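Incident log entry.

Two folding requests arrived from the same account within the same minute. Monitoring flagged them as a possible duplicate submission, but the sequences differ. Recording both here for audit purposes.

Request one:
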Amino acid sequence: MYKSVTRMETVLKNIFLKSVESVKIRNLFERQKCMRMCREEDRLFVEISPVIDKRLPLRVDITDKQCHVVGFGKAVFGMAIEVERILDTHLKSGILSVPCGTLDKFKNTDTQLNSNGRIEVFEGAKNNLPDRDAHSTAIKIKDFVSRLSNDDVLFVLISGGGSALLPLPDPSVTLEEKMLVVKMLARSGATINELNTVRIAISSIKGGKLSVAAKNAHKIVSLVISDIVGDPIDLIASGPTYISGMNYQKSANDIIDKYGLRGQLPKAVEDLLAKLIAKEEMKITNNHLAIIANNSIAVNTALQEAEKLGYHAVCLSKVIECDVERLSEVYLKLIFVLKDYMTFGNEKDLQTKLKAILEDLKYEVGFIDQILEVLKARTKSGICIVAGGETTVEVKGSGIGGRNQELTLRVLKKVLDQDQSYDFGDVGFLSAGTDGIDGPTPAAGAVGTLSTFRQYSDSSLQAYLSSNDSYTFWNKTCPRGHIVIGHTGTNVMDLHVLLLPFS
């Protein structure tokens, strides 16, 4: 019989679930009004209000125009429902590429497209990996947009997972060869930015090439939900409608060399990257993009919920980008310094120590000052530190894992190791993905506390970490800490929540 879930674990999970709810698509459209219809005299307009970049709203005259939609990503099913609701009869047709299981998840719910069949929905990319189904849909989408004319306005819905759901490599490269390259880079610890840079270099649809295919449309309007640190619009879903003028071929070669993969790639990929490709100036004046959500919304909601639940809430960073092994060490040192102050009141050099711990991390301006203020005040139950971003894992074992499940396991194991000589009291930690899927597993992430982990031996925990088998640990050994919520229909990266009670 497993022990019941602790109150701290419940608090951590509730904070995470509230933050996910805040970035679900209906909430984004209804509360933030990122897209609306308006009429002026005899003209009909669609107004797009970017949430993240604060440019003036984009107004598109759709009078006498036909509207169409294409979309690819984990959040675009819900986005399409909202766009269809807003455009109503002005929407004529569309194609969506969504993750496997999306239609079944929303079956028998009120999250449904109209039954008139204007929008075709195709599933693919099982376990977030490109496959033949997604490849077939990518061909359909490119062919569809290439037939548009000046009578048409195209709305392109883009979210995390879009790269896997829109795989269309250069004709000289097979889908299997492309997948092998991405897998090799991922196992080497490449960041999402690096993975998408290489994807663009060997793609015939990414890196603005979808917009090129749709260049005859009256307007191309992309609504983007960011799932990448810093919101680089050229890399979100590998930027199929963003034309940057960047030399992706050169950057891809630099990345291949960085990870020592030269000579190990499929010959077709090596040959493609070795070609001297003339730079094509792609200037399309009818192309517009707007980021309508990123992880700031989820992080801010988590902070608000933590305050409601009785904790001092402080944001560490919204741009976490780090290997889980190194990041777990940062969290350990942060816990140690804060607990040391809570226990002994040792304020000497506290600010200097915090700066040293965080020197390689892009942390929020004012984080250290807020922490010092909270430590002195102590008017609530404890400190809640929230961070958002996306980590990486260098895979060395053959187990089943996910970066969030592994990060929680690593953090708590490190604290447990130190707890034998230093009594930390209790510590709670959660790491989970807002999309509900962590790596090739059905889990979003994991949550645990030091008091829970004291029942485990160091050797047993290390065995799971050595084989990158965090999913098996949480699923079999500590199911109480497994966060399994299924596809959430949205995606704004991962959330980390650290709880340190004052007593």
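Request two (distinct sequence, not a duplicate):
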Amino acid sequence: MYYNGIYHQFYQYNPNGSLWGNIVWGHSVSTDLINWIRLEPAIERTTPSDINGCWTGSATILKDNRPAIIYTGADTEKRQVQNIVFPKNVSDPYLREWIKPDSNPLIQPIGQGLNSGQFRDPTTGWIGPDGLWRIAVGAELNGCSAALLYKSEDFVHWTRVDHPLYSSNASTMWECPDFFAVLPGNNSGLDLSAAIPNGAKHVLKMSLDNCDKYMVGVYDIKSDTFIPDTILDDRRLWSRIDYGNYYASKSFFDSKRGRRIIWGWTNETDSSSDDVAKGWAGIHAIPRTIWLDRNSKQLLQWPVEEIESLRREEVSHQGLELKLGDLFEIKGIDTLQANVEIDFELTSIESVDPFDPSWLLDIEKHCREADASIHGGVGPFGLLVLASDNMDEHTSVHFRIYKSQEKYMVLMCSDLRKSSLRPELYTPAYGGFFEIDLKKEKTISLRTLIDHSAVESFGGGGRVCIMARVYPVTLINSSTRMYAFNNGTSTVKVPQLKAWSMNRAQVNVRKG
């Protein structure tokens, strides 16, 4: 949340080590979303209603400009219940201490069809036209996934509405639901409790299948329900926030800059013993501004502009041509900690390959079969990052273009299968598709942020985002290379390529 000039980031944290367990709420603060100071844990396991874990929840700024956090606790019976905390002293700019009132738990998993072990992760609250507060809680209801709706006058006493905000029989449980308003084609954010302008859409985001998915639709005030614009029975076809290693994301309205920012967690894909040796496990991706495209179909995401403050040495190239098999090395920057932005311009689309809609059911499988070494009509072209001198290790982030009836489809892959010589790692080939109008759009953009084990990529202006974790042996020697490449039969032009070394952010430095 953003409160009185300070960004607060709360996160699941084990104070006793880098393995899962003993979960409390860690707390860090920042003035710029980039450099963070770690504070004492905000919520610890101290009461019967959270003694077995302080799990996910959300912060809300109340009408009197006082923050409140509703979070899931595992109680003495290991039921999942919803609790609240308030800051002890709102004049403390860092809000170091939080108080649990005697009214906890506020909400218990009571009601027909509820599973007490699948009832968690309340959303940020919002105010309806009747003046009542609302939150949604992820749940399993009669064996189906649901975002249950609760109402309150005072944010403490809650009543369950007799129908969910939305439910689906396509899965059994949604974690970390998020609900927010967006204005098509406008990258400024909306506060869900403020007046929502005409033409706005609503987004319901949920975490399942080890990824974050979402639906765009309308919030029917009269029925207090979310109505998706499109309902797809096969959840494999649901839109995703990120097509890589990215989960349990939360968004908030940043009143400082009038934008909506989304945070996502990315876990380690090496071993538990590696985590113990490192002394930490799991990181957050770069915070992203998130908004809705003008067609009201797709969320777009872009790293917050503050990340650009870390840029140092810059290299720039214009007017490159990449023919079949070409590798162009990007030199002059720190390839272990870098920001690369590159535009690809297609010289011909006559040799474009046909699109098979069945690929949408398993895009990772298609990325494995059509990898960066397989010549296509238009593509693959993109970046090779964290590459060893002999290319035994490298991570490929690339595009392919396909023709589907009247439109063109762009496949974006982040292929980790050759990212490391270590055999025990999880090294998938991630991928996502987006549509493109090649008559209107002459170039396809790629932005990749590299920070040692993190490779975070944004394709087509943020239409597909892929977060990846890689652990090349080459990192130990601090000697990696980076290339732009083309393995398609059609020549690809690069009108613009810019790359920067990135400074190290000050993260979780203890002060005071």
